[in-house]
Amino acid sequence: MSAGWSCYCWLLGNRKDNEFSESKISDMLEMVKNTIHDSPERTKSAMNNFLNTVAISYEPLHEKAVETAKEVGIVEVKRDNKKSSLLNASESIQKEVDRGRLGFKRKYVRC
């Protein structure tokens, strides 16, 4: 389940915004909002990363991604034999915006 979310993260962070369907990405944001807290642990992490990536690298839905991150709040990811991670997409997005990274695209992507 997490691989698809991760793949979209790589693509959104590398390709031009006009190569994606805005309605499809918007629907995916809704899915994140509605299912992230009940998803498997790795999927929670991948969905959180997707939320960050849409907010930073896909400018047409930046505002919606920021709103979604606020609604989602803190996501707890339980790790085997380690303490849980608390992911806060809203804070991460704001840090990147403060650094002036809105619209950031990578030149190279490795999968």
What does this 3D model show about the protein?
The chain has a two-stranded antiparallel sheet with strand order 1-2. The radius of gyration is 13 Å and the shape is globular. It has 111 residues and is mainly alpha-helical. The chain starts with a helix and ends in a 13-residue tail after the last helix. Strand 1 and strand 2 form a beta hairpin. The mean pLDDT is 95. Helix 1 runs parallel beside helix 3, helix 2 packs parallel to helix 4 (62-72) and helix 3 packs antiparallel against helix 4. The protein has one domain (2-98). The chain contains 5 helices and 2 strands; from the N terminus they run ααααββα. It holds the Pfam family DNA_alkylation.
